[in-house]
Amino acid sequence: MNTFAEVQKLYKEYYNFAIKNDILEVPEGIEYREFGYGYLKKVDNRNLSFKNEREYKDWVLKNAPMHLYKSLAYMLYPNKSGGASKKGIFRRELAFDIDVHKTTKCKHDEDWICEHCLEEAKKQTIYLIEEFLIPDFGLDEEDLRIVFSGNRGYHIYIKPKDENIREIIENYSKEDRGFLMDYVLGKNLNLNYIGKSWRRRLIKAIKEKDKRISTKKLEKENNWRKIIENLKSKNKIYNIVEETKNKLELDEKVMDDDIRLLRVINSLHGYTGFIVKQLSDLKDLKKFNPLEDAIFKHFENKYYEIEILDNRKFEIEICGKKYNNKSKKITASALLFLFGHNIKFELL
């Protein structure tokens, strides 16, 4: 059995389902969006555009890409090559991309996933929302679109209900977007004059890290450096400040790059076979388990007998079923995951 042909068949099956059930994202202003796609690579081609929803869906059904992207930007000439200057960008969505690496608890290689790194991605996403987007940016949960990336991360789109605010932020310049990213990452944090939001955040972090450190003076004073320099615990406090600034693993290019592509919601991720799934709200995110909830359940009823030819040792658990380098029978979900991670195997 031809493995790649079978993988393509599964992607076609999924997209038939997604389009029939109207769950595949159709980006707003589709005629102004650039699309990209890939099979064995993330992006084999871009500068693709569609006149309307029907043309877009027909293309997806016919080609069933393993990776499917749309531009955050709205463009007059989305199919023109040659970079941002050729495309006539007139508006751009705002989105944050949490993209974590493996954690100290992970026992796998960097390109693998497990419950620990997936949990870390979720924690960072919740932290971004609860520590920045809601209290500091003044957004409500309803202003956010939270999407599991299909791998080890999340995309958080800023979609204010207030159309006037949305109009403003979707016309931000690259510099405006860069300021937001710098703020979240603490790049412009000045301990000689600390703002109340970062002060709140750091005091909370200090109390969580070491209850023995008194924060009374820090709670009242803007010039933290003057206070910290006279404390015996100054090195510990400086370390906590740096840890807090580096708490989020954000892909800065998603905010910076004018022609950045982001995965189409409810497409499949070509490395995992997981659904790029939108969560309904923060509560939904907190109980979300990608290894269960981002799996196309029809694939769990389809089994393959295989012979694994790869020397690497590995383990992955999908929908409560464990697979490793000794597995002889796997589901279609596991097949897509192993194929996407370049595990050598033969279908019997």
TrEMBL record:
UniProt-listed Enzyme Commission number(s): 2.7.7.-
GO terms of biological process kind: DNA replication, synthesis of primer
Location of the active site: D97, D99, D251
GO cellular component: DNA-directed RNA polymerase complex; primosome complex
One Pfam match: DNA_primase_S
First-tier enzyme category under EC: transferase
Keywords, in A-Z order: DNA replication, DNA-directed RNA polymerase, Magnesium, Manganese, Metal-binding, Nucleotidyltransferase, Primosome, Transcription, Transferase
Cofactor(s) it depends on: Mg(2+); Mn(2+)
Domain of life assignment: Archaea
InterPro entries associated with the record: DNA_primase_S, DNA_primase_ssu_euk/arc, DNA_primase_ssu_PriS
Gene Ontology MF annotations: DNA-directed RNA polymerase activity; metal ion binding
Record's subunit section: Heterodimer of a small subunit (PriS) and a large subunit (PriL).
Entries under NCBIfam families matching the protein: primase_sml (TIGR00335)
Protein name: DNA primase small subunit PriS
Species the sequence originates in: Methanocaldococcus fervens (strain DSM 4213 / JCM 15782 / AG86) (Methanococcus fervens)
High-level lineage: Archaea, Methanobacteriati, Methanobacteriota, Methanomada group, Methanococci
